[in-house]
Amino acid sequence: MTDTATTTTSLNKFEKFKAEKDGLAIKDEIEKIAALGWEAMDETDRDHRLKWVGVFFRPVTPGKFMMRMRIPNGILTSSQMRALAEVVQRYGDDGNADITTRQNIQLRGIRIEDLPDIFNKLHAVGLTSVQSGMDNVRNITGDPIAGLDADELYDTRELVQQIQDILTNKGQGNPEFTNLPRKFNIAITGGRDNSVHAEINDLAFVPAFREGSGEEFSTPYSLLPTPQKVFGFNIIVGGFFSAKRCEAAIPLNAWVPPEDVVAVCRAVLEVFRDHGLRANRQKARLMWLIDEWGLDKFRQEVEQRLGKSLISAAAKDEIDWEKRDHVGVYKQKQNDLNYVGLNVPVGRLYAHDMFEIARLAEVYGSGEIRLTVEQNIIIPNITDSRLATLFTESILERFSLNPGLLTRSLVSCTGAQFCNFALIETKNRALAMIKALEAELILTQPVRIHWTGCPNSCGQPQVADIGLMGTKTRKNGKTVEGVDIYMGGKVGKEAHLGTCITKGIPCEDLQPVLRTMLIEQFGARLREVAAV
Ligand code: SRM
Ligand code: SF4
Fold it and tell me: How far is the centre of ligand 1, averaged over its atoms, from the C-alpha of 101 (Å)?
């Protein structure tokens, strides 16, 4: 690998330990680590390298690790869900799982001595957690209703799987892509409503028809039929959130047909791997390289890796719908079939929930389960005749098909319960506050409220109608948990990021602030107070 941007002397501690021993090397040491126990582990292996196999040391709960899976396009089978449930079940009260903001699942309570057994179990059902943390490509997101949606332009499932297979060597781990300068996010959307928040990814593909005389399509594109419209994707690059800087992705001015998407991912990743900035971790995401080089040079380098010129972007993309949340019952494009979207409050699941979801998927659907970036679940392929019985299932009382208008769109990152970066507790607080607000207000429209426990922005407050970012603030001379408030995040068509409008509201004073915002800016009304 050539790294033109750094010298050995300027390497930060992460680059140093990666150079000493590649993170993926930990994969071959799992038996040994399991036998020795976590207390005996080398600290760098424990805190960092284990993340190359998706295992995260949690300083908040030492000895109880988190495991981050890879669920490409957010699609899994009932057998896979059951295997995940069995893993967390063995940890009793310590075991649970979260659906993440990248259509993924994280398991909690994991004991290091169980890792060999857990990996075997997951492998047996075709699941992997490899390269899901640290300087790797994160779970690749795609439309949660790909292949079900009558209005979709492209079914993203196969492409997402192909990219994951290349990057991870079909789940075995691929050393070609295990030493990126930093994390990297990829999304592909084939629908009209940008269901994956394409704009907040380092690399994203959005549907677009290319028109032209044919002359601009260099070989092999010259074979494309012209002058008719040809389907492909406009490419956007450099979107990311970090504590210091947040950017929406910018157009690369490039369009690719679906068959070139995988090659473009590889080319972009090779450029990022070999030239991304490695000296300062705060400046190591792709956008910083684009800043340094300019978009033209970046595009040329990608073309060089690709071995051909990129075609200029289509004049417009096809994202022309408001974003859907998929909660409720919806017709599929297949005759007589429906998908149902279950609202999973803040994405938190326990073993018994996961077994139940697996059962519902098998009894009523085809055994398939899907996840959304809003941390919810979709069960597809349910015939019309089975819907009525499904509605009587008791789990729907908690995972509702028709939740309150605030609960429906609530998203929250992990927060202080398990995350040592957290400045505040998020999930439980978010749920309690939404419940209280729904009790005092009549809402007329869904309002998307996202909580995130610190400026890392895992809960994506910048895409929310109201984003709440954990902070520490002062009240009555004391330091207390608080939030900075973001507003104006727009998703779907014409997506753009929200910005901070108020800083340092103590969490204990937040409810009336949100109440006023919901009334004044989102048309909510106070419920009538019962006469005494
Ligand atoms: Fe994140 C680090 C959780 C989505 C930006 N994120 C972390 C860590 C690993 C920190 C840690 O070691 O404790 C958190 C693990 C906590 C835990 O125990 O669960 C964590 N991030 C999450 C999840 C679980 C939040 C959630 O509740 O859904 C999401 C897992 C996604 C997945 O399945 O892979 C998650 N993180 C995101 C997103 C949203 C997205 O991808 O759309 C972002 C902003 C987008 C981006 O990355 O550009 C995000 N996480 C970060 C950052 C800031 C990155 C940066 O460039 O500075 C960190 C800190 C870091 O990497 O150094 C971070
Ligand atoms: Fe942890 Fe902060 Fe990410 Fe929340 S936003 S999961 S608190 S790193």
Answer: 9
Ligand 1 pocket: which of 458, 486, 497 to mutate (most atoms within 8 A of CB): 458
Domains detected in the chain: 8-124 (3.90.480.20), 141-306 (3.30.413.10), 328-401 (3.30.70.3340), 408-531 (3.30.413.10)
Q: How far is the CA of 138 from the centre of ligand 2 (A)?
A: 15
Tell me if 101 CB under 6 Å of ligand 1. yes
β-strand partners of 348? 98
Q: Is the CB of 118 under 6 A from ligand 2?
A: no
| Residue 78 Cβ contacting ligand 1 at under 6 Å | no
Beta bridge partners of 402: none
pLDDT value for 226: 54
420 token code pair: 């040592």
CB of 184 shorter than 6 A to ligand 1: no
Note the pLDDT of residue 532: 43
Pairing of strands 203-210, 186-188: parallel
Q: Is 83 helix (H, G, I), strand (E, B) or coil?
A: helix
Q: Which ligand is nearest to the CA of 96?
A: 1
In 244-376 the beta strands, taken as DSSP E runs, fall at 246-247, 250-256, 328-331, 337-342, 348-349, 368-371
Give pLDDT tens digits for 481-491.
999 999 999 99
For all residues of the chain together, what is the average pLDDT? 95
CA angle 523, 526, 529 (to 5 degrees): 165
Residue 451's contacts (CB-CB under 8 Å, 6 or more residues apart) are: 410, 411, 412, 413, 415, 426, 427, 429, 430, 459, 461, 468, 470, 483
Of 78-82, 259-263, 490-494, least confident by mean pLDDT is 490-494
Catalytic residue among 265, 419, 458, 507: 458
Q: pLDDT per residue over 184-230, tens digit each? A: 999 999 999 999 999 999 999 999 999 865 545 544 555 555 567 89
Q: Tokens 């998927």 — which residue? A: 361
Alpha-carbon torsion angle 487, 490, 491, 495, nearest 10: -140
Q: Which of 453, 467, 470, 482 is catalytic?
A: 453
* pTM exceeds 0.90 for this model: yes
Q: How far is CA 29 from CA 45, 52, 112, 407, 478, in A?
A: 10, 12, 12, 43, 47
Any atom of ligand 1 within 6 Å of the Cβ of 104: yes
* Mean pLDDT within 100-112: 98
| Pocket lining: 454 vs ligand 2, CB cutoff 6 Å | yes
pLDDT at 528: 80
- Residue range 281-305: mean pLDDT, rounded: 98
Q: Ligand 2 centroid vs 168 CA: distance in angstroms? A: 25
183 is an active site residue? yes
Evaluate if residue 32 carries a pLDDT over 50.
yes
